């Protein structure tokens, strides 16, 4: 099968998630609304491209006439955030530096984005500077999980521990100190994967 554009990957991912949740494919109107397309023709153009590339089959004159193929291997376009605004990460175009194309089998369901690691505070946990951590904003978080958090507007990757006195964010490097926070703190999500480009 041919390679997909970023938008085609996003649409294909949406189709798969919709079918998984509802048990049937979305209509053209539902796809158009989800991606804020200005006309049904834009949706049909993308669906036609996906059909030509072998990822789905369209049944004419049926409202939900989309049959998805290649169920076992769907490339997902994971957005890479260049910055995380204070309060909540925004998956908007001005905050996205690019995308990582990953197989959906490697990730669970949820709202997932990637963030490039700066510094060496998690080196002993195998997370190096320049790596991309995959962050699920929908995952439940327990003590000992690796998380991405915002502290005083700054983004950090650390081990998470909830204590009686507040939150502890522990590094995995002896040169760095544990952060103890009670305010100006926002838990962004759980680190569920790591992507590294080899030199």
Broad shape: elongated
Widest sheet, order of strands:
4-3-5-6-11-7-8-9-10
Low-confidence stretches: none
Helix-strand string: HHHEEEEEEEEEEE
Describe the structure.
The model has no long low-confidence stretch (mean pLDDT 82). The protein starts with 5 loop residues before the first helix and ends with a strand. The chain is an alpha+beta fold and 199 residues long. A 9-stranded mixed sheet has the order 4-3-5-6-11-7-8-9-10. The protein has a two-stranded antiparallel sheet with strand order 1-2. It is built from 3 helices and 11 strands; from the N terminus they run αααβββββββββββ. The protein has 2 domains: 63 residues, Arc Repressor Mutant, subunit A, CATH 1.10.10; 121 residues, Ribbon (Umud Fragment, subunit A).
Quick synopsis:
Helix content is 19%, strand content 33%.
Summarize the helices and strands and which ones pair or pack.
Blueprint: H1 6-22, H2 28-35, H3 40-52, E1 56-58, E2 66-68, E3 75-81, E4 96-103, E5 112-116, E6 132-136, E7 146-151, E8 154-163, E9 166-170, E10 179-181, E11 185-195
Pick out its properties.
199 residues; alpha+beta; Arc Repressor Mutant, subunit A; Umud Fragment, subunit A; 2 domains; nine-stranded mixed sheet; two-stranded antiparallel ribbon; 11 strands; elongated
């Amino acid at each position: 099968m041919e390679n997909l554009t970023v938008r085609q990957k996003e649409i294909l991912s949406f189709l798969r998630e919709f079918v998984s949740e509802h048990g049937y494919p979305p209509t053209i109107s539902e796809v158009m609304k989800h991606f804020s397309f200005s006309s049904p023709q834009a949706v049909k153009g993308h669906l036609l491209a996906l059909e030509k590339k072998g990822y789905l089959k369209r049944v004419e004159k049926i409202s939900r006439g989309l049959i998805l193929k290649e169920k076992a291997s769907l490339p997902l376009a994971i957005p890479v955030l260049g910055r995380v605004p204070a309060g909540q990460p925004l998956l908007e175009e001005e905050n996205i530096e690019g995308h990582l194309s990953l197989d959906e089998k490697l990730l669970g369901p949820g709202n997932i984005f990637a963030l490039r690691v700066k510094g060496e505070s998690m080196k002993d946990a195998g997370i190096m500077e320049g790596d991309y951590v995959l962050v699920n904003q929908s995952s439940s978080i327990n003590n000992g999980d690796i998380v991405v958090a915002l502290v005083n507007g700054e983004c950090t990757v650390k081990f998470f521990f909830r204590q009686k006195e507040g939150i502890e964010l522990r590094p995995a490097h002896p040169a760095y100190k544990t952060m103890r926070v009670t305010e100006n703190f926002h838990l962004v999500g759980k680190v569920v994967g790591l992507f590294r480009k080899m030199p």
